[in-house]
């Protein structure tokens, strides 16, 4: 498990969720969830804010969970949220660009979480294999 990557992903989601909760337009515009004048309907802003708080909460869980089963569980919840977003928004958004962008973004976040769970932590310099002379000049 690459704990550093998971903690960084968690911290990023806390910030991202907080920003989108405060400014849902920043997600609504690229997703194609605005009217012809570029405004986000209040009901859309409310729904996106709820998703943003979910992102912040799951990110916070990843940030503070102890290494081991708790961090794995927090990350699994984060991944399930991302896959759910990809399935929902990847099919239901009104524009092809919005669907594609959301699909790539959500699956990208999930892929980072998988990499954090399955990757090996970087070796410390003291753990590096010693170099053996090859006998060649």
Report what the structure shows.
By secondary structure, the protein is mainly alpha-helical. Helices cover 71% and strands 0% of the residues. Helix 1 (3-22) runs antiparallel to helix 3.
Number of helices: 5
Strand percentage: under 5%
Number of DSSP-assigned strands: 0
The amount of helix comes to over 70%
Shape: elongated
Identify low-pLDDT runs.
none
Would you tell me the overall average pLDDT? 92
Head-to-tail CA distance between termini: 39 Å
Structural class: mainly alpha
What would you report as the Rg, rounded to the nearest angstrom?
19 Å
Along the chain, the helix and strand elements come as HHHHH
Largest sheet: none
List the helices and strands and how they pair.
Elements: H1 3-22, H2 25-31, H3 42-64, H4 69-92, H5 96-118
Helix pairs in contact: 1-3, 1-5, 3-4, 4-5
Quick summary:
By secondary structure, this protein is mainly alpha-helical. The chain has helices spanning 3-22, 25-31, 42-64, 69-92, 96-118.
Features of this protein?
137 residues; mainly alpha; 5 helices; elongated; 71% helix
């Amino acid at each position: 498990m690459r704990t550093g990557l998971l903690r960084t992903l968690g911290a990023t989601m806390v910030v991202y969720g907080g920003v989108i909760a405060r400014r849902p337009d920043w997600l609504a515009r690229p997703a194609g969830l605005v009217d012809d004048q570029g405004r986000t309907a209040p009901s859309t802003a409310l729904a996106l804010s709820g998703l943003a708080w979910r992102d912040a909460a799951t990110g916070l869980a990843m940030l503070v969970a102890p290494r081991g089963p708790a961090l794995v569980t927090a990350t699994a919840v984060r991944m399930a949220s991302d896959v759910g977003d990809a399935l929902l928004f990847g099919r239901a958004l009104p524009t092809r660009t919005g669907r594609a962008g959301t699909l790539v973004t959500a699956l990208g976040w999930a892929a980072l979480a998988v990499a954090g769970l399955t990757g090996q932590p970087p070796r410390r310099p003291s753990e590096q294999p010693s170099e053996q002379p090859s006998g060649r000049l």
